[in-house]
């Protein structure tokens, strides 16, 4: 099973930027897609963004569209989430996840990284 580790979280003021990284423990050539999710205190985990590994097609939650950008680096087995114009409501633990096959669901998850946006 692929292990995922997120990094790049922290404390930032509203309007600021952060870039999250997620490194996979081994080659992701068999990966169909990588996604970012988040969970705020007292709320359910929600989808943030997804990238199809082959081809790079992306999709976003409406709440982050135009502010967040997901990208990947095949050579580094890494997926990124560039977050701009951060809002206090973006405060959450952010998780990356891997989908090994189309429509199979996300089968590997990282431990998460905390993002806190202050007003």
Structure description:
About 0% of the residues lie in helices and about 50% in strands. The chain has strands at about 5, 10-15, 20-25, 35-40, 45-50, 60, 70-75, 80-85, 90-100, 110, 115-119. The strands form 2 sheets. Strands 2, 4, 5, 6, 9, 10 and 11 form a 7-stranded mixed beta sheet that branches.
Strand content: over 45%
Count every beta strand, where a strand is a DSSP E run of 2 or more residues. Answer: 11
Q: H/E order of the elements?
A: EEEEEEEEEEE
Runs in which pLDDT lies below 50 for 5 or more consecutive residues are none
Structural class: mainly beta
Number of helices: 0
What fraction, in percent, of the residue positions are helical? under 10%
Cα shape: globular
Query: Main sheet, how many strands, which sense, barrel?
Result: 7 strands, mixed
> What is the residue-averaged pLDDT?
95
Termini separation? 39 Å
Radius of gyration: 13 Å
Helices and strands in order:
Blueprint: E1 4-7, E2 10-13, E3 18-24, E4 33-39, E5 46-52, E6 58-60, E7 68-73, E8 78-83, E9 92-99, E10 108-109, E11 113-118
Parallel strand pairs: 2-11
Antiparallel strand pairs: 1-3, 3-8, 4-5, 4-9, 5-6, 7-8, 9-10, 9-11
Question: In short, what is this structure?
Answer:
This protein is mainly beta and 119 residues long. The protein has strands at 4-7, 10-13, 18-24, 33-39, 46-52, 58-60, 68-73, 78-83, 92-99, 108-109, 113-118. Helix content is 0%, strand content 50%.
Quickly list its features:
119 residues, four-stranded antiparallel beta sheet, mainly beta, seven-stranded mixed beta sheet, single chain
């Amino acid at each position: 099973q692929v292990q995922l580790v997120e990094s790049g979280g922290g404390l930032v003021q509203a309007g600021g930027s952060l870039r999250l990284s997620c490194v996979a423990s081994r080659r992701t050539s068999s990966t169909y897609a990588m996604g970012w999710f988040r969970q705020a205190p007292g709320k359910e985990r929600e989808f943030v963004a997804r990238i199809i590994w082959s081809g790079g097609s992306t999709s976003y939650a409406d709440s982050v569209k135009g502010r967040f950008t997901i990208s990947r680096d095949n050579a580094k087995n890494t997926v990124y989430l560039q977050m701009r114009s951060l809002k206090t409501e973006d405060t959450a633990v952010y998780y990356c996840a891997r989908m090994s096959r189309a429509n199979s669901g996300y089968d590997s998850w990282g431990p998460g990284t905390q993002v806190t946006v202050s007003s």
